[in-house]
Design goal:
By secondary structure, this protein is α/β, with parallel strands linked by helices. The protein has 11 helices and 7 strands. It has a 7-stranded mixed β-sheet, with helices on both faces. The protein is globular, with a radius of gyration of 23 Å. InterPro entries: HAD-like_sf, HAD_sf.
């Protein structure tokens, strides 16, 4: 019995970091402004947490410790009433880099409005994978153009002891627990979710063993865009698997440019450019070229498979 492949593998995925990749600063800026929090003091405290807890014999995750420190601020009354809705509202205040969010539908149209690509059923999807707040990303101007958002999340009303049989009790809506936490290494998990199709189909687990030929979006059909060294694990996955890697730096920021250039010299990324997504900018041209190249490759593979599957027609004998 012939087993058909579950996916046609005709989807291209652009996977984005968020802070300093799509927005100019950290997404917590409007949140701190709302509550009058000194952002420098907050991050200085976060950076000092590993040493502080190490003296107590406790090891913490450097990348995600800021989430618990947010909860500490809530509990101490410095961010009283902080809810998921407030986090989402803060997303409306984020300053995007030039050319955003228009870049997202424009680059999709390069694929969707091309007759050859349409015939092959090729599509382009956008995802954000961030160690920041998923709710804040959902409130941002780019959210309507995204096919998936993976980020850190909070619980407002945690399940209480006996919740399986007790009546549900409404609480005050203030965040009190971490629901999910992404660090720089675990971001790669979500690349595999997108790769295997686990984000689209509940029956597929990210740890399921699936042959590369049966995965929804092969890594060679992915483009990963981020701003720096913290994304090296994700860059590595794509580089090792035939994908595309691109680093962003803010215009006129020489230190940031040196940082991404060092990544290029170390073969961590394939190319870098300014965080300017306007049409005909270097970033627009390079990323759009990669999308078109992948789409052309998919058409060529599809045509080859069709030729291989078609038998020769009968002919007259001489």
């Amino acid at each position: 019995m012939e087993i058909t492949r579950p996916f046609e593998q005709n989807v291209i995925a652009m996977v984005w970091d968020f802070d300093k990749t799509l927005i100019r600063d950290y997404m917590q800026v409007p949140l701190f402004k709302r509550y009058g929090i000194d952002s420098k003091q907050f991050w200085d405290e976060v950076n000092a947490l590993p040493e502080f807890y190490a003296k107590k014999g406790i090891h913490i995750n450097r990348d995600t410790s800021y989430l618990n420190h947010i909860l500490t601020y809530v509990k101490a009354g410095k961010m009283r009433g902080l809810s998921n809705q407030i986090l989402r509202d803060c997303g409306k205040e984020l300053e995007l880099f030039p050319g955003l969010p228009e870049f997202f539908p424009k680059i999709k149209s390069l694929v969707e409005e091309n007759e050859k690509f349409q015939k092959a059923g090729i599509k382009l999807e956008h995802y954000v994978v961030s160690t920041g707040f998923a709710e804040t990303i959902r409130g941002s101007a780019v959210a309507p153009y995204l096919d998936g958002i993976f980020g850190c999340e909070f619980i407002e009303e945690p399940a209480q002891p006996g919740f399986l049989t007790a009546a549900e009790k409404a609480l005050d809506g203030e965040i009190s627990q971490v629901a999910s936490a992404l660090d720089n290494t675990s971001k790669t998990r979500y690349l595999f979710e997108i790769n295997k199709g686990a984000n689209k189909f509940e029956t597929i687990d990210v740890n399921s063993q699936i042959a590369k030929s049966n995965r929804r979006i092969p890594f060679e059909n992915m483009i990963y865009i981020a701003d720096g060294p913290s994304d090296v694990p994700a860059f590595s996955i794509l580089n090792q698997s035939g994908g595309v890697t691109y680093a962003i730096y803010p215009a006129h920021d020489r230190m940031a440019m040196r940082q991404v250039d060092a990544l290029r010299k170390d073969h961590r990324i394939q190319m870098y450019g300014e965080a300017d997504y306007t049409e005909d900018s270097m970033t627009w041209m390079w990323l759009s070229e990669q999308v078109l190249r992948i789409a052309e490759n998919l058409v060529a593979k599809q045509e080859l498979n069709i030729r291989k599957s078609a038998s020769k027609p009968p002919a007259h004998l001489n």
